[in-house]
Amino acid sequence: MAKNLFIAGISKDAGKSTISLAVIDKLLKMNKKVGFMKPVGQRWLSSRWGKVEEDVILMKQIFNFEESPKDMNPIVVKKGFTEDYLSRIVKPDLTTKILDAYRNVSKGKEYVIIEGTGDAGVGSVIDKSNAEVAKLLNADVVLVGKGGIGSAIDKLELNRRFFESHGAHVIGVIVNKVIKDKVQKVRENIKRYCKKYNLKMYGCIPYSPILSHPTLGQVIEQLKPEIIYETDDRKTILDKFVIGASRVEEFVEYLGEKSGNLMLIFPAVRIDLIFAIPNLKHLFNNPQTRIHSILFCGKQKPTKIEIQILQKENINILLKKGDTFSTISKLNAISIKTGPYDKNKIEEIKKIVTENIQYIDIFNLLKEQDIEDPFGNTMKNIVNKVMRNVKRML
C-alpha cells in the first residue's frame, strides 16, 4: 500500500507541475520508491507513446519512470471527448480505468504523487472532478495557490470546501509565486487561514522569473508564427517583451532600461527601429542583455536587407499576422510550462522549491491507503445512472 499525495491547484498555472516535480525529486533523493500519475489530462502532446498529457511526458523523461504513460495518464480529454460522454446513456467506466491505472503505477511503490488538472471542479463534466478523483484514490490533498493574500485565501477556501464536500481530505497549503519582499507578510496571513481550518502551511515559494517566463520554443509552439530566421536556441528563456510603439528616441531610451533576453514586438513597417538595432548594444548596462528575438506583427514582411541586418546580429525573426494588440494579448496568454529539456528551469525548480517546502511535515502526515476493489461500486454507479436517465426519459 502506497501513500498517496494529490497536488491540486486552486487556479490555472498555479504551479502544480512545479511542486510535483520537486516533491518527486526529494523523495527519490531519500531513496523512496515513487510513482506519478495525472489521472485526467487536458493538455496532451503527440509522443512516441501516443497522445499523452504533457506533464506525464515531463515526469517520465526527467525521472525515467518505467510505468506506461497510459497508466500514468489513463484519461485523455481529446477534442469531442466531453460531448461524446454527455450524449451517452450508459457512460464509459472511467472509475475502473483510473483505479486499474493506479494499481499499475503504485505497484511496489512507497509513494504515489497524483497531479490534478486545473482547480477542484475541473473534470466535473465527465463525473471525474479533481475532488472526485482524490476521494476515489484515497489521496491526501495539498492545495497550491498563487502568491497574494485576499484573492489567494478566497480561492483556497473555495477549493477546500469543494474537496471536502466530496469526502477528500485536504491536509495543507503551499503558496507559489510570491513576490520576494512580501513573502513574510503572505506567510503570516496564510498561516492564520490554515489555523482556522486545521490545515498545515507547507511552503511559501518566492516568485522566480526563470519559472514564470516563456522560452522561445514555447512562443513558437503556442503562437505558431512564421519563422523567417531562427538560431539554435529555442530553450532560451525570454525575460522581457518590449513593444516598439513609440518614436525611435523614446524606444531606445526605454530599451536601455531592460535586461536579459529581450523579444521586441513591432510591425515590419518600422524600418527606423530595425536600422537602429545594430547600434543599441552600448546602451545596455548589463553585458548579458541581448535582443534575442523580434516578433513582427501585421501583414508586411521585412525586406531582404532588413532581414540581413538582423541576421548579422544573430536575432531570431518571427512574423505573426494580426495587429500589435492581438499579438501582445496572445503572448500574455501563453501557458508557461516546464519541458523535459528545459534544464535551467528544472534546476531552478529543484533549488527554489526544495528550499521553501517543509517536505518532512507533508510526508509524516500521509497515510498508507488501501484502494478498495471498485467492481461492485462501479456496477452500482452504472445501474444508478442508467435508472436516473430512464426516469428522465419517462
Description:
With 394 residues, this protein is an alpha/beta fold. The chain has two domains: 3-211 and 338-393, Rossmann fold; 214-332, Udp-n-acetylmuramoylalanyl-d-glutamate--2,6- Diaminopimelate Ligase, Chain: A, domain 1. It is 42% helix and 20% strand. It contains 17 helices and 15 strands. The strands form four sheets. The chain has a six-stranded parallel β-sheet, with helices on both faces. Helix 1 (16-29) crosses helix 15 (343-354). The radius of gyration is 24 Å and the shape is globular. The two termini are 45 Å apart. Mean pLDDT is 84; it is low at 373-378 and 387-394.
Kindly list the characteristics that best describe this protein.
Rossmann fold; Udp-n-acetylmuramoylalanyl-d-glutamate--2,6- Diaminopimelate Ligase, Chain: A, domain 1; disordered C terminus; 2 domains; five-stranded mixed β-sheet; 42% helix; alpha/beta; 394 residues
**Count of strand segments:** 15
Strand order of the largest sheet: 2-7-1-8-9-10
Range of helix content: 40-55%
| CATH fold annotation of the largest domain | Rossmann fold
Low-confidence stretches: 373-378, 387-394
CATH architecture label of the largest domain: 3-Layer(aba) Sandwich
Largest sheet: 6 strands, parallel
Radius of gyration, whole Å = 24 Å
Helical stretch tally: 17
Terminal CA distance reads 45 Å
Q: What is the CATH superfamily label of the largest domain?
A: P-loop containing nucleotide triphosphate hydrolases
The mean pLDDT is 84
